[in-house]
User: Fold these one by one.
Assistant:
Number 1:
Amino acid sequence: MSDYNQRLMEEFRANAGQVGGSWEGRDLLLLTTTGRKSGKQHTTPMVYTRDGDRLLVYASKGGAPKHPDWYLNLVADENLRTRVAEKTEGVRSVILALAFGSLAATQKDAG
């Protein structure tokens, strides 16, 4: 894990989910997955959107052609934990959409 993410998570935990800097005012959660190879717990800070009772996160690796590791982990094991503010919950993931490249190719093929 990067030092940046570690500091961000420490600030999140110390301030009931509130952080400053470029993340100030954004909806941020901590997502904990189980490593598909190691079996170890991995926590990642990320922005989310609410959809009713559901929390939506977006599997993006900054425009890279590969999925982020946390996404590959949740594909392998849909059981994970989220922490929003001071509340931690066990949740089950559901993958809602195809990768943008796949969607764009499908739309192009459709004419």
Number 2:
Amino acid sequence: MSGLIGETAKITLVDPDDAAGTVESLAVVRYQLQSGSDRKPRLRPAPPLPAVSLIAGAPLLHLLADSGLPRDAARGYPVGWREKDMADLLGAPFVWFRDGGAEASELAGLKLETGASYLVAHADGKAAIVKSWPFPPAK
């Protein structure tokens, strides 16, 4: 996916199905974007990292990427700040949804069917699906 978004892009990863807010699925994607096969620390200079934000839980929370704490639980962020911050994050140049469905579709402003992950790009005030990755069939 890093080839689709560029090395210095801002991306928000969203998992509305992660009711506990554990961000396990999002952490794997963040790791791949920031530490993937083309990033070999100590062997050669690494390309710039994309800025990654996480949104997960029920209700959805913007989580601090490093600690997993809700953003407005962190010092300096007033309660109620979350709504504006979430809107800003959902308007990032790129937003990746772990799965489609009603909530993801509402957040994206696009029809995102369940059973696939989606990369959505925002440009000139419009949202468009860049790529989708269908889930493998259950065995």
Number 3:
Amino acid sequence: MTDVSLDALLGEVSTHNPDEVRDDGDSVLYRGYTERDSRRWTVTRRAPGMREQPLRHISKHSPTGFAWGYAGSGPAELARCLLIDALGDAALCPTCLGRRRIVYTGSGETDSIPAPPGEAGMSCYACDAGYGPLVERAYQAFKFAVVGRWPIDEPWAITQTEVLSWLREHQGARVEQ
């Protein structure tokens, strides 16, 4: 596997003022809001040219879903899912390619490969539910720096470009490919 910088993988990314709600039209737009008189948290994503849809909830910390404005399990879940969505395939574990299962080849140079579809294999030792170290080492910091600071009862918006800019600036991230 070759070590590739996040810059090389994702290309140039510009930064924006984080206090402004913006939609540059060229990036996925993530929005969050609470419904009036309830504690129902709604988070959506809209890719360019597509309709708005719910952000996929990949449960790890909070089976009840997303939240923001404090440093708990709901904001951790949201931070992790925003990073996974923004990174796309780059979020996947480089060992099992997101399949969560591997097989040992005994080839010496490469001892394990992703388990082919339909083959049982064994649990991947290198990932957390199919996602690699780039997500796992960054999402708690993203929660504290960004998600946990959004006002709890107010709507927010952030673009994929901004999520990736934060990742580059604050993590010095490198990914394997």
Number 4:
Amino acid sequence: MQRWPVESSQIASVGYDAANQVLEIEFKRGNAIYHYAQVPPEIHEELMAAKSIGKFFNAEIRDKFQFHKLEEVHASDEAKADEESGDEEEGITPRTAHPDSGFSEV
């Protein structure tokens, strides 16, 4: 899935598969990419248009959609993202999926 960089201190990039309603988020910390299932297109559009992507994520996505951890991001990518971040927003901590399941329940 293609992701687009976003202006956020905690989220590096966001992708969306409209056909399957899967939201993909790459976090700057934690070296992780997560898939969120059954996310309506309106939520993706609002996320991308939000003044604070992190605050929107915390309020409207985190703990509201099933998810699973997709893959690790290289440490050098995380360091680069940390250097480039400059906006202030609430900290984001993705929930940890149970290792035996596909998507975690919220």
